[in-house]
Structures are given as C-alpha cells and as structure tokens.
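Re: zinc ion structure - here you go.
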Amino acid sequence: MCGFSEMAATRIVRELLGAGIIEEFIDPDSTEAKKNNVGRPKTGLRIVKNGLFAVGITVSAYHSEVSICDADGRLCASSRPENVPFQSVSEAAQTYAQALFELIESSGVDVDRIVGVGVAMSASTDPERGEIVESEYFGWANDAGQFCREIKKIIDLPVELENISNALAIAEMRFGTARNVANFTLIHAATFVGAGVVSENRLVRGNSGISGLLGHFRAEERPLTCICGRHDCLNLSATGFGLLSRMGKLDHRAFDTSKLSFYAKTLLDALEDAEASDLVAEAGSKLAPALDSVAKLLGPKMIILSGYLGSNECYFDAVRSTLADQFDFDPQRSFQLVKGTVSSVEAAPLLALHSFCYSDRLDYDRFASAAEKSEEAAHG
Ligand SMILES: [Zn+2]
C-alpha cells in the first residue's frame, strides 16, 4: 500500500522499535493456529500506548480545558483554567500555556515524549502559518501568530492551531465515529454554528482558507443582530444565541463578545431545564433546511452533529424529525445523521496526535535521541 520495499519496511520498523514508538508482541491467536501447522508464530507490531503523548488546549467560553492524551488517543489528564482573559489574545494564550505546563508537570509525562500541542478554538485559522485569521466569536483580529508564539515561550513544542469544527472533524475522522468515512460534514452547534467538511479524507478549506460558515446561511429574519450585522443569519435561530433570546434570557439584541461566558453558562443551564425543551427543539428544527442544502450540495455519507447544543438529545431529534417531515430524509438512501463521539476537550490533543504523530511530520529524530538518552541513564 505504501509502495516501499520490504527492506525499507524492515529498516523503518527497526527505527520505530528503537525509538520506543512501537513494540513487538506475539499474537496469541496466531500461536494457537500455528500449533497444527508448521512455521513460527507471527510477530505482531503495535503502537506503544505510553510511547508518545499529545497535549491540547481547548479555547472555549464553555469549559476552557488543557489536556493530555496517549498514543492511542485516550485522555490521560486534564484541568480547567479559570477566568481566562479572553479580551487579550496574548494574555489568554499565556493563561492556557501556564495551565498546560502545570498539568504536564503534575502528570509526570516526560516532555521529551510529547509530539506537540493542538489548539482548538472558535476562530478561522491558518494552520500552516500558525495564525488566527480572525475570531468573530472572541472579537479577535488577525493575530500574526501571537497566540502560538506565547504558547511556545512557555512550552517549546510544535503547535497546531485549528478551528473547532475542523478539529472535531479531524478527530472524528481519525479516532471517532467517522473512521473509514471518506466524505462527511461535521456541524458544531453551541452559541453559534459552524461546519467542518471532509471530502475524500481531506479537510476542505476553500480558496480563502475559510469554509464551513454555516452560521451565516440565510434563514428567517429575527429581531437580533448577527456578528456580521445581518438579522437573517442561521446564527440567530438554530443556535444557543437564538435559543436564549427566545427564552427571554437576553437583555440585548446584538451578539456581544464581552458576554461569551454568560451565553455559555445560560445555555448549559437551559439544556438542563425540561421546560426549555420545546424551544430547544424549535432551534433544532431551524437547522434542518441548512443540513438539507449541505447534503444536496456535497452528498456526504454522514453528517455529524457536535457541540453542547448539537449533541443534545432534544435538539438532535428535532433536526432528524424535521428532515424526515419536510425534506423526505431517508437515512437508507441519503446520509447517516449521527451525534459526535469526540468532545471539544478531546479534539485538541487528538488534533496534535493527527498532526505530529500519525503524519509525515513525526519528528522521529527527536524521539530516537530521547530513547537513547533514557537508555544511557538506565545503564548508569
Ligand atoms: Zn451573520
């Protein structure tokens, strides 16, 4: 499949074994099968779970979180920094980096075995340049790479910065419900709504580098103002912001970036409140037309609903029933509609694992020399 020779494969395996990234094991099934046959039992190769780690930062007004996962993508440790100063890009970055630094220290994970830092945030980003292009949600302009630089000052590791919908899509593709699905769309619905599109196993970024602006799809007019200045964006009806307005929880009409924590907390409370379920369902029904358009344009095999609102039972059911009632949705002939299996907290370290471990960006030399160093130390 990879197109290299057996000799090259043997050399690569030897190097990965030497660096402690993979290990050999005897498959018990093959030993059993071989009893009746000639030949040696097969030696299997597997990833060393604790051979490499990845760390992540979830920049969110809901639950800011820093986390560590192992090479299998399982979360090993996490913590929640409080009172992140979202009004300043550099101060926010410093707060997250400091919390992550302390988490790495207290977890006992060897920093030499960490592949890199994944950052998932509600912003359009340029991962190649490591820049925040713009965040409507946090009210940040282009940061010229400042967020990543601040992190590297405290934790000297490669950083991958990605929009939250894209990070979730990557995580679902590599480790979650979209494994082996080449074409799918992930919709992240919380305070606002956005989408990550995967086509032929690749994230679609578009010509401008910014795709998936589902929140600015035209929808019904509301007595509210979107961050873009319009009154008819999907962000005003199918989202947490629209829901809070319908519940009478807002004393203002225009989206206000200084009230992100208020929106987040009030939405989480609303999702716990049985009396709000009709309005939650109403918001879900407003998302259905956009999903129908996405499905007709892209023909995905799967559409994943993610985020605190998107994965809510009541919201999800309303999306599905509206699609069935008004758009002849038939999962047998069209797409599968599923809930996301990866949380935004997990998406950040999984992004780092995807970018720096299961990728041609794996810094093999660094881990080989780390393995050598610990070998020397063990032999006195
Ligand atoms: Zn808008």
